[in-house]
């Protein structure tokens, strides 16, 4: 079983000092260690962006894919080997922008995997353009007069879209975030953990203090994550409060059969364990004769 | 389609050689749909222009096909059609079939009109009825005995009526033997070859004309014990394939040109991350949406060059259903052994046509997984497995997730030996060289072109992929016209085995390159790699494949002119264009 020390790697981090990704990475390692997972049985599939570097910074298996594609890559990995713990990592631009179609459909399928979104509300690696979650009025290189589009609300989409575990954490509160990630990995089904992850280099609006003034914990507020209507109400609180109150914690959880649990082909063992040395296709011939 | 395939099966079960070929326009319902069956006791490979028997279920069909019935041939048409409207041909037979009456007599529903016609066609062909019973039973038994009975009596009604009254057709056909054969489409053969080759996961987004791979595999997924997934788009499908192969499962996707366009980024990712991947590209005319239900071979260059950057890939283009099967299982071996993307390049014509053949030759099937690393020594503290270790043959050991001590990151970024992103110039060059170094062993596994027909000939038809089929049938026609020809066919497209290609081409006298596209793409590739040039280019890109008659006519006329004339010959089915109903005011 992996300890946090074992999960560490020698590679030099490429994130900016103070980046929210450090807190997120610490929480992720802590969750993996607390769950007692084996390092070789965990795969982190990432997209491209600052978030995409994550698999390089912990000693599990990893796949750094393309911009927007961690979810389909992770899906392929999971269906190939249901014995693995699969975690997809991406940013808000990656997952809610260029890869949004995968996000919409993976929730309907309810594969048993975890999706962690490093939501810094802009594009960091490409030096600060507006992203789908940039707040109205925010000035960036691509919105010099301020954002005029309505922000994408991942939590509301996920509750409505069929995700069976919907949570939001804050990289400035590592123990809380660790618990959310641990819960997401332990949850059987598709789990979203959207993470407020301040970009200290390009995002001058959504800073650590900005979040600290606004976030509050759903658990402390007595929220029942099994109540879908209440969960949706909480998800809409961001915009309704004029982004003054931002709930974090577990919004919603439900038990639903996973996609892979409904495939008889996967009942006995994962696909990767099927013997392919001499496949019998004679039944197919009989039908064609 | 179902009725046509049933009829084709009657001939297949009679031990005959059969080719069956559907044509349909890209509209949801209606339009002019045809299903041509060629059956012979001699080898046949391709549809032909002229039919001996035409079964016309509506007025348009009589109109469109009357000029394409062979002399002495017959049109069987539904009695409700007023055939007098058309200028009659003296050299063909016209048989009026009262389908509605026969259905009523047989106690069958209107849905079985096609089955009555099937019976009548068989009777005119002089073929015994016994086969129909078995074929219809096997086709409809899942719907119940009653449906089988109704279909058989509908077929019998048509058969008996025709036996009684339709006389004078001389070009009948008899069963040849009781040898069991299969009747299989190109897409199905690729699916089966892939399954035999250990494909456990197929993932795709529907796109004509590749969808029948998806349909076939979905229908049989439990019987064949594979997982099949329909995704939100082709981008997802290709990324699933890369993910599944990374996790150690042989996975494939299938699409046509438009979907392939969406996949190319992930194909490049497979190359950069050295993850095996297999894609079947069943092409149709392009660019854009173009003519979705028709055929073309215009994506050879696209397959060879797809995605940014430079990388090794294998492109295979099967020429018939047996090659579809064989190249499909081989594709997975190439992908695994060399950790590269492999593209199976087929087309609508081969993919959706069905052919009789024997059960596929499985004697050569080998599952070669290449360097999958197992039972690894313990990793040093906080270190990673050297997934991209530089090696002489360019292939590094690949541990699968779940393997202890194999932890690494596979990456679409350039990387060092452990997979960590690297922009070190020397490492970049070393990794790029490593990936290309695989060519040395790979090329030894790439056969040259195959020669069909006489070893020595006056003229050689050079072709690739599906156009092997009409070329082979053109040989006989050319021979009848006194032209000694053979066929040189490429099914291994890329990388080009230059030595073998040169050797084969050096043995040719006159060459005619036959391609189903407008720019002679194989010709360009062979010029580039083997400095090959062809005496003539015979090109067709009107939406149809070549017919053997066309090839024989053009090559025959070249022979008659002692091979003098324009180098580029472009053919079109001008008079055989019957899909534009408005043109004829029908």
Overview of this structure, please?
The complex is a heterodimer of chains A (289) and B (586). Chain A is an alpha/beta fold and 289 residues long. In chain A, 33% of the residues lie in helices and 17% in strands. Chain A has one domain: Rossmann fold, CATH 3.40.50. Chain A has 11 helices and 10 strands. In chain A, the strands form 2 sheets. Chain A has an 8-stranded mixed beta sheet with strand order 2-1-3-4-8-7-10-9, with helices on both faces. A two-stranded antiparallel ribbon of chain A has the order 5-6. The model of chain A has no long low-confidence stretch (mean pLDDT 97). Chain B has 586 residues and is of the alpha/beta class. In chain B, the strands form 5 sheets. In chain B, strands 8-7-9-10-12-11-20 form a 7-stranded mixed beta sheet, sandwiched between helices. In chain B, strands 17-19-18-21-22-23 form a 6-stranded mixed beta sheet, with helices on both faces. The longest helix of chain B is centred in the N-terminal third of the chain and has 21 residues, at 145-165. In chain B, helix 10 links the parallel strand 9 and strand 10 (277-283). The radius of gyration of chain B is 26 Å and the shape is globular. Chain B has 19 helices and 23 strands. Chains A and B meet through strand 2, helix 3, helix 5 and helix 11 of A and strand 6, helix 7, helix 9, helix 10 and strand 16 of B.
Please give the structural blueprint:
The complex is a heterodimer of chains A (289) and B (586).
Chain A: H1 4-7, H2 20-34, E1 42-46, E2 61-64, H3 70-80, E3 85-91, H4 92-98, H5 100-109, E4 114-119, E5 122-123, E6 129-130, H6 154-161, E7 165-170, H7 174-186, E8 191-196, H8 208-214, E9 215-217, H9 228-235, H10 237-240, E10 246-253, H11 282-288
Parallel strand pairs in A: 1-2, 1-3, 3-4, 4-8, 7-8, 9-10
Antiparallel strand pairs in A: 5-6, 7-10
Helix pairs in contact in A: 2-7, 4-5, 6-9
Chain B: H1 2-13, E1 17-23, E2 34-40, E3 51-56, H2 59-65, E4 69-78, E5 93-97, H3 99-106, H4 113-124, H5 130-140, H6 145-165, E6 182-185, H7 186-196, E7 201-204, H8 211-220, E8 227-230, H9 234-246, E9 251-255, H10 257-272, E10 277-283, H11 300-305, E11 314-316, H12 321-338, E12 341-347, H13 348-352, E13 354-357, E14 372-373, E15 398-399, E16 409-411, H14 425-437, H15 439-442, E17 450-452, E18 459-464, H16 468-480, E19 485-490, E20 492-494, H17 498-506, E21 510-515, H18 521-530, E22 536-540, H19 548-560, E23 568-571
Parallel strand pairs in B: 3-4, 4-5, 7-8, 7-9, 9-10, 10-12, 11-12, 14-15, 18-19, 18-21, 21-22, 22-23
Antiparallel strand pairs in B: 1-2, 1-13, 6-13, 11-20, 17-19
């Amino acid at each position: 079983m992996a300890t946090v020390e074992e999960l560490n790697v020698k590679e030099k981090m490429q994130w900016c000092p103070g980046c929210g990704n450090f807190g997120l990475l610490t929480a992720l390692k802590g969750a993996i260690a607390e769950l007692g997972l084996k390092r070789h049985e965990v795969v982190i599939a990432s997209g491209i962006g600052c978030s995409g570097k994550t698999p390089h910074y912990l000693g599990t298996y990893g796949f750094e894919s393309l911009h927007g594609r961690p979810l389909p890559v992770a899906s392929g990995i999971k269906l190939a080997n249901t014995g693995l713990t699969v975690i997809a990592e991406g940013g808000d631009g990656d997952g809610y922008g260029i890869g949004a179609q995968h996000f919409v459909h993976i929730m309907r399928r309810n594969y048993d995997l975890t999706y962690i979104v490093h939501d810094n509300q802009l594009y960091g690696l490409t030096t600060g353009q507006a992203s789908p979650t940039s707040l109205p009025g925010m000035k960036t290189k691509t919105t010099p007069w301020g954002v005029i589009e309505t922000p994408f609300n991942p939590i509301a989409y996920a509750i409505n879209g069929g995700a069976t575990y919907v949570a939001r954490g804050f990289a400035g509160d590592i123990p809380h975030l660790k618990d959310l990630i641990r819960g997401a990995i332990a949850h059987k089904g598709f789990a979203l953990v959207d993470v407020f992850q301040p970009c200290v280099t390009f995002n001058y609006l959504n800073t650590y203090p900005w979040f600290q003034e606004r976030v509050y914990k759903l658990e402390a507020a007595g929220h029942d994550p099994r109540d879908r209507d209440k969960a949706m109400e909480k998800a809409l609180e961001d915009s309704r409060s004029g982004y003054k109150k931002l709930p974090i914690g577990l919004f919603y959880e439900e038990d639903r059969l996973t996609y892979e649990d409904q495939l008889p082909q996967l009942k006995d063992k994962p696909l990767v364990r099927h013997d392919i040395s001499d496949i019998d296709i004679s039944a197919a011939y009989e039908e064609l004769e | 389609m179902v009725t046509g395939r049933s009829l084709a099966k009657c001939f297949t079960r009679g031990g005959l050689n059969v080719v069956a070929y559907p044509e349909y326009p890209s509209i949801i319902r209606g339009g002019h749909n045809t299903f041509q069956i060629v059956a012979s006791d001699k080898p046949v490979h391709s549809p032909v222009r002229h039919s001996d028997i035409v079964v016309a279920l509506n007025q348009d069909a009589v109109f469109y096909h009357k000029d394409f019935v062979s002399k002495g041939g017959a049109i069987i048409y539904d009695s409700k059609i007023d055939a007098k409207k058309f200028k009659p041909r003296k050299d063909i037979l016209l048989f009026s079939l009262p389908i509605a009456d026969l259905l009523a007599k047989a106690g069958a529903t209107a849905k079985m009109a096609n089955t009555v016609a099937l019976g009548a066609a068989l009777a005119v062909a002089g073929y015994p009825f016994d086969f129909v019973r078995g074929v219809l039973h096997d086709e409809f038994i899942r719907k119940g005995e009653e449906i089988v009975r109704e279909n058989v009596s509908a077929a019998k009604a048509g058969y008996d009526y025709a036996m009684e009254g339709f006389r004078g057709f001389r070009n009948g056909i008899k069963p040849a033997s009781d040898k069991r054969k299969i009747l299989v489409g190109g897409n199905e053969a690729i699916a089966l070859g892939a399954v035999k080759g250990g494909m456990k996961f197929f993932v795709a987004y529907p796109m004509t004309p590749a969808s029948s791979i998806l349909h076939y595999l979905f229908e049989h997924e439990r019987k064949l014990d594979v997982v099949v997934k329909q995704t939100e788009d082709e981008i997802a499908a290709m990324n699933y394939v890369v993910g599944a192969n990374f996790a150690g499962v042989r996975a494939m996707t299938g699409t046509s040109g438009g979907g392939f366009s969406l996949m190319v980024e992930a194909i490049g990712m497979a190359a950069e991350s050295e993850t095996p991947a297999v894609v079947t590209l069943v092409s149709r005319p392009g660019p854009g949406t173009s003519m979705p239900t028709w055929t073309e071979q215009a994506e050879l260059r696209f397959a060879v060059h797809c995605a940014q950057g430079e990388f090794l890939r294998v492109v295979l283009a099967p020429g018939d259903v047996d090659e579809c099967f064989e190249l499909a299982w081989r594709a997975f071996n190439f992908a695994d052994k060399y950790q590269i993307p492999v593209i199976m390049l087929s087309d609508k014509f081969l993919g959706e046509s069905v052919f009789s053949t024997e059960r596929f030759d499985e004697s050569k099937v080998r599952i070669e997984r290449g360097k999958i690393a197992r039972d690894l020594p313990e990793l040093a503290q906080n270190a990673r497995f050297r997934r991209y270790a530089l090696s002489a043959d360019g292939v590094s050991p690949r541990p699968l997730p779940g393997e202890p001590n194999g932890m690494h990151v596979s990456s679409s970024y350039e990387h060092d030996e452990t997979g960590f992103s690297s922009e070190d110039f020397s490492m970049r060059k070393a990794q790029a060289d490593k990936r290309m170094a695989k060519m040395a062993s790979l090329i030894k596994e790439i056969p040259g072109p195959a020669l069909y027909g006489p070893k020595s000939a006056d003229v050689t038809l050079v072709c690739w992929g599906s156009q092997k089929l009409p070329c082979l049938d053109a040989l006989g026609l050319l021979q009848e016209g006194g032209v000694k020809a053979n066929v040189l066919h490429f099914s291994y497209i890329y990388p080009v085995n230059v030595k073998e290609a040169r050797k084969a081409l050096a043995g040719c006298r006159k060459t005619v390159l036959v391609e189903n596209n407008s720019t002679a793409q194989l010709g360009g590739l062979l010029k580039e790699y083997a400095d090959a040039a062809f005496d003539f280019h015979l090109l067709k890109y009107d939406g149809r494949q070549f017919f053997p008659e066309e090839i024989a006519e053009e090559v025959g006329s070249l022979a008659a002119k002692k091979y003098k004339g324009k180098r580029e010959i472009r053919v079109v089915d001008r008079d055989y264009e019957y899909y534009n109903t408005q043109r004829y005011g029908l």
